[in-house]
Each structure stands twice: as structure tokens, then as C-alpha cells.
Write a structure and sequence with these properties.
There is one protein chain. It contains 1 helix and no strands.
Length: about 90
């Protein structure tokens, strides 16, 4: 009978350990799920920031091209003022 009791006790111990491992796994899973959600939120935020920065870069490039075109026109006008004087 003690052999049966020992086996039963070992089975209880193993089941107790298995239950503790399972509980810890569930806790770890919940923590990982929360971390995944946080990282997804961070990624979404960074994606939105990136989109805003890309739009800003495009706007700044357009502004730079506009300023460049205006400067070229001004330089042409200056050249037009200077050339007749140097010819004479």
C-alpha cells in the first residue's frame, strides 16, 4: 500500500508543479501580449510621425525649389541690368 501511496504522492507533486508551470506560462503570456500591444501602439505612432516628416520634407523641397526659381529670376534680372552697362 505504501508503494501506491508514494506513487500517488509523486503524481500529486508532479501535477502541482505542472499547474505552477502552467500558471506562470499564462502570466508570461499575458505580459507578452501587453508588450506586443504596447509595441504595436508605438509602431503606429512612429508610422504616423514618419508620414508627417515625409510630408514636411516634401513641402520643404518644394519651398526650396520655389526659392531657387525666384533667385534664378532675380539673378537674370540683375544680369539684364549689368550687361547693358558693361557693353557701353
Amino acid at each position: 500500500m505504501t508503494d501506491s501511496n508514494d506513487q500517488f504522492q509523486r503524481l500529486e507533486e508532479k501535477l502541482g508543479k505542472a499547474i505552477e508551470i502552467f500558471k506562470q506560462a499564462q502570466t508570461d503570456k499575458r505580459a507578452l501580449q501587453q508588450e506586443v500591444e504596447k509595441l504595436r501602439g508605438d509602431m503606429k505612432e512612429r508610422t504616423q510621425e514618419r508620414g508627417g516628416l515625409e510630408r514636411e520634407v516634401i513641402a520643404l523641397r518644394r519651398e526650396r525649389e520655389d526659392i531657387k526659381a525666384r533667385l534664378e529670376k532675380l539673378l537674370q534680372r540683375l544680369d539684364g541690368l549689368i550687361k547693358p552697362d558693361s557693353a557701353g
